[in-house]
Design brief:
By secondary structure, this protein is mainly beta. It is built from two helices and nine strands, in the order βββββααββββ. Strands 1-2-3-4-5-6-7-8-9 form a nine-stranded antiparallel beta sheet, with no helix packed on it. The protein is globular, with a radius of gyration of 17 Å. The termini are far apart. 13% of the residues are buried.
Length: 179
């Protein structure tokens, strides 16, 4: 069974402070079950000052590849610009100018969704559309309600990467749309 596991442990140190501390521990694994289908899972330990350690399921999904399209079902994070979300945490050249979270409600690189999404590309444009549940706790694997539509479009224009995100609740009476 082709597959692999990654163990990462991020350490944190600051000027004028002795020693280092554990900032994040991450375990990631995937298994290629067929030519076009794999399962992916990951787990996080995040120490939080004065609160102990947050232990949570990170991602757990099945991924089907058909041509240049990727279909994911399960628990996942929005995945744009980066092969793995954790690249935000330790790629110093791009981590600083890229936004890890947006000011608008619900749009975040590190948001958890459960549901179904489709990703692909056309020329220099990359897109993602999906039906998701954004309200879940740290161990949820499947959506309770597919009550949000999500869409993303990312364009490469020379050296500029320009992205547009949209997240809307399908029952419009309870939450405003964000773009």
């Amino acid at each position: 069974l082709p597959g692999f596991i990654i163990f990462e442990n991020f350490q944190w140190t600051k000027p004028h402070v002795n020693g280092v501390s554990n900032r994040l521990s991450w375990i990631y694994g995937e298994a290629q079950l067929s030519k076009n289908f794999k399962v992916v899972g990951s787990y996080l330990d995040i120490p939080i000052r004065n609160m102990g350690t947050l232990r949570t399921l990170d991602e757990a999904f099945g991924e089907l590849t058909i041509g240049d399209k990727v279909i994911r079902a399960g628990r996942f994070r929005p995945r744009f610009c980066f092969g793995y979300w954790s690249e935000l945490a330790y790629v110093p050249i791009i981590a600083q100018p890229m936004a890890r979270t947006q000011a608008m409600n619900g749009l975040a690189v590190q948001r958890f969704d459960t549901g179904l999404d489709v990703q692909g590309s056309v020329g220099d444009a990359q897109y993602q559309v999906g039906l998701v549940d954004t309200a879940n706790d740290k161990w949820v694997l499947a959506p309770n309600h597919l009550d949000h539509a999500v869409g993303r479009l990312q364009l490469m224009i020379g050296d500029l990467m320009l992205g547009f995100n949209g997240l809307t609740r399908l029952n419009r009476g309870t939450q405003r749309d964000t773009i």
